[in-house]
Specification:
This protein is α+β, with helices and mostly antiparallel strands. It has one domain: 2-Layer Sandwich (Muramoyl-pentapeptide Carboxypeptidase, domain 2). It contains five helices and four strands, in the order αααββααββ. β1 and β2 form a beta hairpin. The longest helix has 38 residues. The relative contact order is 0.17.
Length: 168
């Protein structure tokens, strides 16, 4: 390996360490914000605030997807595009489990919020967890023009979360 290659490798290793440190700091910050929000507001109010934050971000991302792919009539097709054809859900690993009576059941295999919850020893009942549901609602509503609701069916910070997307 040349000295130039060694310098490039070292530079990449330093950059990776910086990214890891920043990620750790952001994880701690988000966890602390969630805990303080929960203490300052009633839990339902804190969940509403987090959900609205997620919805707003989801709407922006849904708009970008709609600009790229056009409006999509079916929610399950919109979800498929969000999951597999964009980077809008980076930090998430989600799969469609099944569709039953107009409800889409999904498994959230991993998400950045769950990492924060696990780090701060919080449960999926934490207000911070509402961000993901709001994010999906905002993106899907913007992309399809339909009113949807995302509800948690089962949450496990150390495993899989199961959620259902209800088309209203």
């Amino acid at each position: 390996m040349t000295s130039t290659d060694e310098l490039q490798v070292q530079s990449l290793q330093d950059e990776l360490e910086d990214c890891k440190a920043n990620n750790r700091a952001l994880t701690i910050l988000a966890g602390e914000v969630s805990m303080i929000l929960d203490e300052m507001a009633k839990t339902d109010e804190a969940k509403s605030i987090c959900r609205i934050m997620g919805e707003d971000a989801g709407r922006r991302l849904g708009k970008n997807t709609k600009d790229r792919f056009g409006a999509i009539a079916k929610v399950e097709e919109a979800l498929d595009i969000l999951l597999y054809h964009t980077e809008l859900l980076r930090g998430y690993r989600i799969e469609i489990d099944h569709i039953e009576d107009g409800t889409i059941y999904i498994n959230v295999l991993s998400c950045f919020v769950r990492n924060i919850l696990r780090d701060r020893k919080l449960l999926t009942a934490s207000p911070l967890c509402s961000i993901t549901r709001g994010y999906l609602e905002g993106a899907l509503e913007e992309l399809t023009g339909k009113n949807v609701s995302v509800e948690i069916a089962y949450g496990d910070v150390d495993g899989v979360c199961r959620e259902k997307i209800i088309i209203k």
